[in-house]
Every structure is written in C-alpha cells, then in structure tokens.
Specification:
Elements (H helix, E strand, L loop, with lengths): L8 H4 L2 E4 L15 H6 L1 H4 L10 E4 L27 H13 L3 E6 L9 H8 L11 E2 L25 E4 L4 E4 L14 H16 L4 E4 L37 H14 L5 E5 L5 H4 L7 E4 L10 H15 L6 E3 L8 H4 L7 H20 L3 E5 L19 H4 L45 H5 L5 H14 L1 H5 L1 E4 L7 E7 L4 E7 L5 E4 L9 E6 L8 E2 L2 E4 L4 E5 L1
The protein binds 1-deoxynojirimycin and calcium ion (CA).
Length: 552
Amino acid sequence: MAAAAIDEWWQTGVVYQVYPRSFADTNGDGMGDLAGIVDHLDHLGGSPDSLGVDAVWLSPFYPSPDHDFGYDVADYVGVDPKYGTLADFERLVEGCHRRGLKVVIDLVLNHSSSQHSWFQASRASRSGDHADWYIWRDSPGRSILGGRRAPNNWRSFFGGSAWTWDDAREQFYLHTFLPEQPDLNWRHPAVREALLGVVRTWLDRGVDGFRLDVFNTFFKDAALRSNPWRLGGRGAWSWQRHVYDRDQPELRGLLAELRAIVDERPGRMTVGELFDGRLAEAAPLIAPRHLVFDWSLITLPWSAAAFKGAVLARDAAFGPERWPANVLSNHDQPRHASRLAPAGVDAAAEAEGDARAKVAATLLLTMRGTPFLYYGEEIALRNLSIPNAEAADPPARRASFLSPWWNRDQARGPMPWTGAPGAGFSSGRPWLPLPPDAARRNVSAQAADPASVLSAYRGLLRLRRATPALLGGDQALVDQADADVLGYIRRTDADAAFVVLNFASRPATVSLPAPGAGRGWRVAWSTAGDGRSESVSDSIVLGPLEALVATA
Ligand code: NOJ
Ligand code: CA
C-alpha cells in the first residue's frame, strides 16, 4: 500500500535539538542562554552557509531549581532568568521564523518541580484547592523493621522507591523520577485544564510544536496496583513488568484532546518521548501530526546487521502508514560519534570515527522518517569523560547497584564554536568542561574544511531538500551479498534514491537495484568526495567506510 502524501514540514524537515545550557553563553556565567541561541541561528538555517535544518527543538528553559537541569519545572509559562527573559524567547521565535525555522519546545507534563507553587500548596494541605493535584497516599502501615511501608512496589526510574514520605502532609507522594519531581495527577480535571492551558499559552507565543517528555507515563493505574515482578537485567527498575505505572488506556483520550488544541493552528506538530518502551508500545501512539520517539536507532552498535534489523523491525511494527522519528543522539544517551567509534584514542581511530560519523549521518538523513539531530553531532562531538563522583547530573550521583544509572554529563558538553580559549562558548568558566579537542574540533574549523563532518551534514541536507524520494518516498531494503553493507531504495512516483553504506574499513562490492523503466542511476553524493563517474549501474565498489547516494 502506498503511503499517504508526505509533504508537511514535520515529515520532510530536519529537527535540531538544542540543550540551552550548553549551546552558547552571552553573559559569561558559564551557562548557555537564549540570547546565545539567537546569536547562532545562522549556523542552523537561513543562509547558504547554514547547516540547513528546518526546526529547532529547545530542551527546557523554564524556571527550575535544576535537580534534573530543567526537566523539573517550577513555572510552566516562564523563562528562567539564567536563560534570559520572555522578551529573549520572543526574539528567538522571531529570529527562527525569519529564517524559515520552526520552533519546537519541550513540555514536561508528567511531573513538576517540588518547588512549583502547585506542589507547595498541595503538600501544605490535604483539603485545599491543590490537595489532589499530585498523587498522595497514606502508608498502609509499618514494616517488620519499623519503617513506613510505601503504598505499592513502584520504583523511581532514577533509583529507589517511587514514593517519598512528606512530613508536612503525613502521606507519601509519587515520583517516577527524582523526589524533587513529583508526578502530577492527570486524573484531576483542574490539573488537566491547567496543563492544557500551558499548551495554549505557548501556542499563543508562536511555537510550532511540542516535544512531550515521557508522555506515555502521564496516567497510572487508577487503583495504583503493584507491578508484577519479573526476572530482569541490570537494576531494580528492570525487575518489574511496568504494567500499572505507564501506558494506561486513558492516555488516548488525552492525546486526542491535546491534539485538537494544537490542531486549532494549522501546521503545528507534537512528538512524544516514549518512556521506557519499544516499537510495540510506540506504534499505537503515533497519530496524524504526532510523532513518537521509539529509540530504534539510539543504542545500536556499529554493525550493518544491527541497523538492518532495526529497519526491518520498525517496518514490521509501523507499516507504511506511520511516520517514524529517527534519532541517533540526545541529551540522555552517549553521543553516537563515541558510541559508534572504533576502539583506540590515536589519530587513526579518530579519523575512522569521523568516517563512521559521516556514514551514520548519511543513514539518519536519508532513511524514511523525520531526522532529529542533537547539537554537536554535526561536528561529530565525542562524549566528555566525567567520573560519576564528579558528575553534575543528579541521577548519576545516586547511581548504585540497584540503580546503575549512567552519567548524562558526557553528552551535554559545551558547544565548541571556535578554536579560541573558551571555544566561543563562554568568556567565563563553563558549567561542564569544554571538550578536550575543542581547539581543533569546532564549528569554524569544520566550516572551512570541505572534507569535514560538518561539510558532510551540509551536503546531505542539501541533497535531501533537492530529492523528493529522500523526503517522502517509500523505503525498501536492497539485499547485499556483503554482510557489512546496508542498502535501501527510497522511491516516489517521480524519482528514486538508492542509499548504500559500507560499515567495513575495506572496500566492498555493492549491487544496485533496477532504477525503474527509462531511468539510470547517477551518483548524487558520496562521503568519498567527487571522484566518481556520474552514471552507475548493476554494481559498484565502495571504498572503506564509504556511504553513497545515487538518484534516478
Ligand atoms: C526524559 C528526559 O529526556 C530526561 O532528560 C529527564 O531526566 C526525564 N525525562 C525526566 O523528566
Ligand atoms: Ca549565560
């Protein structure tokens, strides 16, 4: 069955995630700010030298005590002074729109900060207006050791029980994440109204879309039943089947209501972050103008077979109707240039790592779905190395055997813009160390180098825009004899693109599919540069770690 027409910006466009704290600092306090993002919009879009993305997604910039760096929101409609003012936000929206960039903001609606006035009011009184805005329960009694028993067996994703006792209210409250992130009670009509009001406020302020943090955990089982135990993997979270603390049927109705509000303004989109789930949970939650991050690609190793398996599994789960969201890196996971890199730290390993990053970029920017880039990946930024004991990321500091949490600082390093001291990021002391290779791996050095990873991203984005098949075409794998090669064809009625990636560090022979009656393949792009003859047919030899796109 042919897919429906694919022509909306959130399908054909490329979204670029900015982690505001780490992008660019204008006032020397070592933290990025909204004015810093405004200063660097030309990097993203609007001029011939820009990367050429279509939308910017901003991780949270709301007032926050930063127990989870902004994912603990103390005011849903404000701007934290460390990031600037509402006027800066308006300038940012205006600057994006002037350049043809859409603005997507992060909404963290499963939980607020414990500093939010709603939670303060809720904890202060069992009978006040906000009493039931969060999920409070009595203790069912004492354990044999004398401690208060929690209402059920649910765990916090960041370690420990999901319940914390509050002395003021003399009850437990629920927190799927940190104790400083109490879960809101979406079953309460006033909470629903207030949070949907937040959506309306930001639409009025001109945003084009929302990324919904952990959206499939908004609703919990109404009776708060304990999860069944199971034999799991690493960490106590995996020792339960999460049947009662996420993925409840009430979510469907809420999503429809939220979508109806967003749909009052044509061209707006949402993307839901699937919390701790996979393709089977993601597929039924995809809807018109609503994408879902399903994490198919974000943990894969460097292997053609692994990527092939992921493409097949997703095709089977989504079919031709559901539009995927493609992500290799974000602020929670190791940077993919490090994840996919070969072992070793010498210059040869670094060069090979960059070559792999170009192959990965080719995949991300040509496979079916909307690509989401994470700031810094366009220069193949690597992980920072920060021991857990020195981590700024609070969950990493709580890591233990029962909660083998990872250190997300590694993926949140300051963006190196130039080779100057401070890397053009800040004139002060950056909140996390600069990447150690910032003097040579930075935006301005790579912009001047036609063989750089940045130049590859620019070239691929140009190719995408010029090739309808890469934007909206169907996709089918093209079998290859060489197990280190991944090939696929994208096709519309009017054109076709054949993408082929050599994962091996040796040459590989590739067979091309038939281009379609009356057409011939021409090489449109290759990570190896321009040295190829234009027309190709039947078979072609790729160089080591070469990725190539032919169009017809
Ligand atoms: C998912 C976000 O991506 C992550 O950074 C955050 O810690 C949790 N949700 C809790 O909000
Ligand atoms: Ca700053």
